[in-house]
Amino acid sequence: MVLLIILTFLSAFLLFQIELVIAKLFLPNYGGSYLVWGACIVFFQAVLLAGYIFAHTFLKRLGSSAYLKIHLWLLFIPFVFFPLRDFHLSFNSFTIPLTPYPLPLVLDIFWRLLTSIGPVFFALSTMSLVTQSWLASSLLKGRDNPYGLYAVSNLGSFAGLLTYPFIFERYLTNTEQLEIWRVLYLILVAGNVLAWFLIKTTRHSEGALGATEESKDVSRSFAALPALRGAGRMTGDPILRWLCLGAAGVVMFMSVTNIITYEVAPVPLLWIIPLGIYLMAFVLNFKKNPWCPSWMVRGIGPIIGLATMMYFLSQKHLLPVLLVIFILSGFLFFICMYTQNQLIQSKPSSSTQMTLFYVMISLGGFLGGILTSWIIPLVSNTLIEYLVGLLLVALIVPQASSKPPFWSLCLCVVLVVAAFFVWPHVVTEYHLWSFVLLWIAVGYSFSVISSDKKFFTAVLIGIILATPWLESIWQDAHFIIKKRNYYGVYEIYDSKHGVRVLVHGTTLHGIEFIDRDKRRIPLGYYSPLSPIGSLLIDDVFQAKRVGVVGLGTGALSMYSKPDCPIDYYELDADVKNLASQYFWYLAEAPGDVNVILGDARLSLKNANDGEYDLLAIDAFSGDSIPTHLVNKDVLVEYRRKLSPRGGIIFHITNRYLNLEPVLAKIAADSGAYVAVKDVGDEGYNMRSIWCILTWDDDRFLTLITKEDWQPLEIDPKDQGRIWSDDYSTILPIINMGELAISLKAFKPFTW
Length: 751
Prior knowledge:
Strand order of the largest sheet: 7-6-5-8-9-11-10-12
Helix content: 40-55%
CATH class of the largest domain: Mainly Alpha
Radius of gyration: 28 Å
Oligomer: single chain
CATH architecture of the largest domain: Up-down Bundle
Number of domains: 3
Structural class: alpha/beta
Distance between the termini: 58 Å
Low-confidence stretches: 205-236
Number of strands: 12
Largest sheet: 8 strands, mixed
């Protein structure tokens, strides 16, 4: 039993770790576009589902004992590809058969993954089902409850989640991580061989069940599905229920991740919290002695209602960021506990249907992931997947034994309308009494409404349909346009101060005067008072051509000249469209301006060597730092595109990250001079911090003596490694104190 626990834990740990390692390996070679990340996610989810289906099909046909021989071969086959062979990446290294043309990006990624880690990922994806079936068909003590191993599997994933950023990524290079992974996989294979000799299966598992016996067993297992504790009788097809429960949990944790990182606080590593909650809910409900307080099951109606209200309340920015994150995470925990509890309560009583149970959970998770990551960003301009996830949970909630009177339901609907449509108009700042009334009204209303499943569902659908209107009410803003794509939500609006604003989540990307006579004046981080503005006005580098990574509103276009064009490298095509259609910087630029779409690192390879006198890297304002654009290896590529006396300037203004130590080490490693300039708010100039690297003595001296730049030196106490394509970690440079500022100023008992 202990050996099976170790194997289950280790396989889940390795499965989770390899996803994170591969994601880092792909960045320098394939770029940071969503297609790269999204293609990897779809591949991993599809292979995981395929592994579940494979194990389910052959365990059902052959039985555990016969399948174990296939299982051992399955673990050895990956050695032909990886982990024994080296893992090499090079985009467009494959071509379409019988043609000289390279494969499209997504197909190239799929093929590369399929022929490298695909086999080992597939083998690992079957492990959880195999070990549970192995236990169920053995003579071991825990064979009556093999579902406990699923809790162990999720605990292994949770360990992989926590140890990667805090241990593996921080202290090891990618190469070292892969070496350790190889060793652990060898241990896993050896452990499986040892288990094959030590753990024997019973005779009844030697062959496939006969059709008659199997059908009887299926009927018995479905008939024996237990009643849900404290939630009425279960109705409907159990298979469909497993599918919906699997999808609901995934949609919820992914949508909470999107809300926190897009709308609340773009803080690195916050994505760990929702995923960790999702995994721990599985652990708590599938362990030997499941834990889920009955009030979480009985109170799911008001929990869904309050979670719905919190979605809109988080957009009003009346509460401290940390408190909003805590409340959203709390509701996610309650909902995941409910969905996982319903799964364990509705599990089949027969082990012969156990693998089907997990296949449906996996299929639900796959569909939920596709819905959240690929479909909703294309059809909605809001983060509506959160409300869709709550609706999925509501559809699973069984009908109560008694319905409330119709007049009571109508009264509660009136309270809901008042809470969602009227309250945000009336309350413009935090007052304790107003929040208490809001929570009581919503909680009570949904406790009554949820007793009538059809009414409950109709109310949630109505809120979803009204979401665009509700968001404009709660945000108290009238957007010129709101655009969502795979990179987040863009909002453009005209402020009362006479400027047009482009916001991406919580990050300001640019502002421009609405007044036609002032449109040629760059504002914000790029004003004439800003470090980069004064640098271009004084023409320190005597630039004949400037390259800029990151477009924003195109404010730097105002510094172009007839003899000094500017080339922008922009990842997101929608940013170019928004800047062109709703801002005037690009159209009124005094010099030529070119916008080159695609990942900057890949696109810059097409530029001529020595083409730029100044290269500005402006891609570090959010939580997801593109580490492949700021390390010693990419600096070599940047310098190749730079003229001999040129400079590279990095925009490092960021509330939650301090990139100065990173750039100081990179500069020292390359032999460059490095300086930093921090200019505060003044009028329409917004505080911005820029860091510049140059290898020219005279120009560095000019920066220091005439332009007020400050030399940047390495902190002797900082013993961390230099960022490279093989190593990067944002953990040491995170400034979590910024999150606590609003919490310290918050007065919760203000009446």
